[in-house]
Amino acid sequence: MKGSLKYILILFFAVIFFGCKKENSKPSVDYLYSYFPMAEGYSLVYNVTEINIDDTMDIFDTLRYQLKERFDSLYYDNSGNPAWRLERYKRNDSSQNWIISDVWEAQVINNQLQIVEENQRFVKVVFPPEVGMHWDGNTFNTIGRQEYEVTDLNVPGNVNQYHFDSTLTITLDNRESLINKYYTINQYAKHAGLINKTVISIDYANIIPGVPIEQRIVRGHLYYQTLIDYFNE
Fold first, then answer.
1. What are phi and psi of 12, to 5 degrees?
2. What are phi and psi of 149, to 5 degrees?
């Protein structure tokens, strides 16, 4: 009887111990970083529209092209941290071949997604993200402080033909007056990565009551990058 009771007690405490350990364990790496998956050969293709306006100089230029970002290979940087070589290609449309335009670096350090763009390092995402979380995206460069904020998390979203159950929106800028507007967001989807980037930079606009500021620009720059395909090569 005593032996049976001892066995039951051991089993009871073992269940409690392992059950608590599982409940308090940290999320897996896949869960933490699923909004920005990185793997060799993983590629994302975007449609990009850039509009430059300077009415005083009679400039209204619209540039449309396709952009591909491809995770080429994993290596170790000068500090011994793993980093991905992120190749970027451009073409006018799907009838043309891809031409490499530049190479960036992507890595996760201390739960921060850091991307080196044109020799400038940015902190794009802090994992795990929470609504209201904010940080200086320019911590590791000399551009000057820029506050990034998580403004939406784990909400459904649609981009072109794709529907995503969970998206993450990070707002980099959101200021507007009668004569100017600065608005920048990066939107990510779980198990996909960046699906939308919007930059509205209006330095000056005419004042016309009832007319949206985007329709009365005197000087400004607009940039729209939207996902059209993603795959493993």
1. -60, -50
2. -140, 135
